[in-house]
Amino acid sequence: MENVSSLNVIVVGAGLVGFAAAVSLRRQGHRVTIYETSSFKSELGAGLAIPPNTLRCLRDLGCNVANLDPVENLCFTSMGYDGSQGMQSDNTDYEARYGMPWLMVHRVDLHNELKRMALGDGGEGPPATLYLNSRVISCDVGVCSITMEDGTMRAADLIIGADGIRSTIRSFVLGEEIPIPPSRTAGFRWLTHAVALEPHPELDWIVKTAPRGARVISAPVSAVTAASNAIDHRTIIIYGCRGGSVINVLAVHEDLRDQDSVAWNAPVTRETLLEFFSDYHPRFKRLLGLADDVHLWQMRAVPPLKTWVNNNVCLMGDAAHASLPTLGQGFGMGLEDAVALGVLIPRGTSSSTVPTRLIAYETLRKQRAEFVAAESFEQQHLPAKRGLYLRSIQMRDEVMGYNVKDEAQRVLCQLLGRK
Ligand SMILES: Cc1cc2nc3c(=O)[nH]c(=O)nc-3n(C[C@H](O)[C@H](O)[C@H](O)COP(=O)(O)OP(=O)(O)OC[C@H]3O[C@@H](n4cnc5c(N)ncnc54)[C@H](O)[C@@H]3O)c2cc1C
User: Which residues cross the membrane (predicted)?
Assistant: First the structure.
């Protein structure tokens, strides 16, 4: 007899989105098992923007926001590469407008909190089980099973491929491999402890000058790089996290390398960084001169896929719709996927209705997440669209004012034929 009390769910990937999916489904009483290829020994230290729509989802899933030790982003202050002052956006109305502030957190703190919510004894539903060092190598969408590197096979009522931009599950859902094209965009990324800035009064503007918020340092839009005819897109984004004790720096730029022939993520020296920004004002170079453990990241976006679902298997997060970080919405879109799926697959769902529910999931999520991915690319590359997200109240309202839980409940009622 079919078990309708709780489903057996497999999540492939224990990144931010994989854990979020586990939380969302355990809260509905489902039994969740997560398989993760890594051992979590070297987690990525970096900051992450949590805009209001993302924070709304975290709260809906029962996140204890205090555990994230967040810093509120009250404004974006733009500055010229020569030290000149630019515009300042005011984010102080976000709480009134969207019911949530815009926060900035450390990724490791967020990952730990989602892990606690997924695996911990507290919270609703049965705790999920996590297997580390467990690479999934294939998925049979016909019988809803996965095979691990050691040959072990596991079957489930629902499989979620939350295995990131280089997803394994994606090709089994689509029935073909799809290339993730180079984006001509990359970013130097590192963290600096705020105490390291203290001996340098010329850096007081980063943490000591009100209002608190992100600082954005741009090369002149009209400038052309010496090495090519490309527009100079170099932009340094700086913000605090972990209660302001850590400063996150991301220096995005046009990547003139052949991106297919270099690593997606590689360490670089401080000297390389300083040389890259050698024409910047000395006060910015002072900050770059304090950088340690700098990595150069290629940034790529997943092109629109023909589908995200196949029978009882679905894609979620970066596996389905990785975007460039231009809108700070990559994780937010994956988190919205997780909240939506929890609403559409509630307690008591029978496994035979999962394929129909996954189609509803795709209908609800695909257009919105692919819009964000496309905008993240265009607002990085098209001069006329640069900064549009922050300039356009309509766009901000669409992205940050969205309530995925309400939308998913509306879709669920349609599915069940209720008003
Ligand atoms: C520079 C940069 C800045 C960003 N800033 C922001 C921001 O400010 N705000 C925001 O919302 N988003 C931001 N993002 C995007 C955000 O980081 C991603 O969208 C998010 O982390 C994706 O999470 P994920 O769980 O889908 O994928 P991942 O984090 O890639 O996790 C996938 C997991 O699956 C595992 N895995 C992969 N293959 C297998 C397999 N075969 N078997 C088992 N496990 C497997 C991996 O080891 C990994 O742990 C940024 C991205 C970049 C690159």
Answer: 6-25
